Structures are given as structure tokens and as C-alpha cells.
Amino acid sequence: MTRTSEAEPLAVYIALVREFVPRPIRDEEEFRRATALMERLLDREELSPGAQDYLDALTTFVEAYEREHVKLDDVHGVEMLRALMEMNNLKQKDLVTEFGSASNVSDVLGGRRQLSKVVIGKLAVRFNVSPAVFFPA
């Protein structure tokens, strides 16, 4: 490996650190900024080694904050979907890929349609949660 190729992951990592320092998250605003940056990174088709290292570090702090401050244990189904959308600053249009159409998203959130097993599977992947959180307790 050349010095240039060794320096690239570090340069990418440092650029991301300048955008948001990966450290313990202390409030809702930091949590919002961290999750927004995570979403941006996860939306990329491929991450460089430096970006992957940064994402791994940031994920650790986001998960720690969620364990302490985000209580979703009693929430299931559409309520869980709404909570996940709020946590990730998503709008209905952001879920069209998982639901297949804007009207399907609207129907589910409006209570006119149930979540299908296929959509539940896609949502579980998108939000990195167990499909079980979308089923009644």
C-alpha cells in the first residue's frame, strides 16, 4: 500500500469528524444531527474505509443515547413506524421505496391499511430493527 492510499481513509474520517465529532451524545439536537449524518452515510451505495470507520464510531454513540433516552418498548406497529420516522426526521415521501407508493404510505399511517409482511421486512432492514417491533405485543 502506498502512503497516499493509506492516508485516504484517514482524510475521509477527519473530514467527517469536522462535520460532527463522534463523542457521547448529550441532547436531542446532537442526536438529531448524528442520526441525520448516519442516514446520509447509509444512503451511499458504498462507503470508503474511512467513512465506514466513522459510521461505526458514530453508531456506538447513537445507540448509547437511544438506550438511555429513547423509550420504544411499549410501541408497536404503525406507532413504532411513526416513532422511527420522527427519530430519523423522515416524511411519508421518504418511505415510498419500502411501501411501493406514496398512497400506500398514507393509507398505512392513516389507519386505512395494515402493514404487510413484505413492507415490515423492508422497514426492519431500513431502520435496523427486528421485524417483531411492527407486530402487536
Describe the structure using short key phrases:
137 residues; mainly alpha
Description:
The longest helix has 21 residues. The mean pLDDT is 88. The chain is globular, with a radius of gyration of 17 Å. It folds into 2 domains: 67 residues; 58 residues, 434 Repressor (Amino-terminal Domain) (Orthogonal Bundle). By secondary structure, it is mainly alpha-helical. 64% of the residues lie in helices and 0% in strands.
Please give the structural blueprint:
Layout (H helix, E strand, L loop, with lengths): L2 H17 L8 H15 L6 H21 L7 H11 L8 H4 L2 H8 L7 H11 L10
Helix pairs in contact: 1-3, 2-3
Beta fraction of the residues?
under 5%
Distance between the termini: 52 Å
* Overall geometry: globular
Derived structural class: mainly alpha
What is the tally of helical segments? 7
In short:
This protein has 137 residues and is an all-alpha fold.
